[in-house]
Give the backbone structure.
Amino acid sequence: MTPGVERDAKHLPVIAERGSNAADGESEASLTEAPVDRLGRPLADLRISITDRCNFRCTYCMPREKFGADYPFLARSELLSYEEIAKLAGLFVDAGVRKLRITGGEPLVRRDLPVLIKQLRALDDRQPHPQPLDLALTTNGVLLPRLAQELAAAGLNRVTVSLDSLEQAEFARMTDSRYRVEEVLDGIRAAEQAGLGPIKINTVVRKGQNEGAIVELARHFRGTNAIVRFIEFMDVGTSNDWQLAEVVSAREIVRRIASEFPLEAIDANYPGEVASRYRYRDGQGEVGVIASVTQPFCGGCTRARLSSEGKLYTCLFSGVSRDLKAPLRAGASDEELARLIRGTWNRRTDRYSELRGEATMKLPKVELSHIGG
Ligand code: SAM
Ligand code: SF4
Ligand code: SF4
């Protein structure tokens, strides 16, 4: 086998592991300066996937034909423990990360999540900024009624809930689950009551499948504190049979909403925000669109992703990762791990969405359920 390339029979046809020698520049990575990648982008956010399992089988993410009963999900021992996650997250915070987002798979199916939230909240003590870390969670929402209060008490700041349709049959088709739309709406209410708002709603739009949901979701959440963000269907992973023809462009999404409820563009909340924001002209709140396919935003991408099995990815569409779990479990010092993280970021050149085309389609990519959206 080619050195540095590992065949991961479980999850990807072929996935490359970055080598770990001095030639990679990792052993020389500075521990005092904040890492900056080769395109001048700092490391500011970390998405942490805590499980590759899910209680839904959304057709665009974990289609049941590929993620069926015999799919080799990770064994518990392969997952990073909460202590391991918190330790690594601390090193990312030292490197400049200010936002942590817990994702999956479905993060709420992993037991005792509030324990991890408490450990991450405790990282406030080691970071130099006076402001607390921004701790967020992305979820399909159905377990929120049970968990929202406890998560908020543990120190979670906010949640994003995914919801692709208000119409039960369409929702069931998109998520391939037995859950009801009402259960997601209950989850959103529970999160609001627990103080985890303003809630963001993520809606993936797939042509011919849930286009009607665009205006319906906009209408439903107008005048509430929730902000719906419509996401262009993306070619993540290798399982969802993505085709450009199934993408409804952000421009078209905005056009459809604006034809019912006039909109005007507003500024981003902060540099690098992935959603383009629009407010209703009648003052009834705002919506967002995430145009990863038609208007890529790689130039401002400051996100690293830690998979549930402890691999560091520097792009959502990557087939290459840096394993952090093996050195962590082999007893690497904080300094050694910090150099691996910072060196990996320093060498980053990812801009997949800007380069998307025939050639990139054929590259091996990690499944989204492994690293979270
Ligand atoms: N299970 C949680 C959920 O659904 O919110 C968290 C993980 S899920 C992978 C994170 C986000 O990725 C969700 O909002 C989901 O809609 C989005 N997503 C999944 N597959 C996608 C695709 N092919 N294109 C665009 N967004 C996608
Ligand atoms: Fe599960 Fe979220 Fe993927 Fe849907 S999008 S299958 S809820 S991980
Ligand atoms: Fe970031 Fe990769 Fe997405 Fe570009 S394609 S915005 S580099 S995650």
User: Anything to note?
Assistant: The radius of gyration is 20 Å.
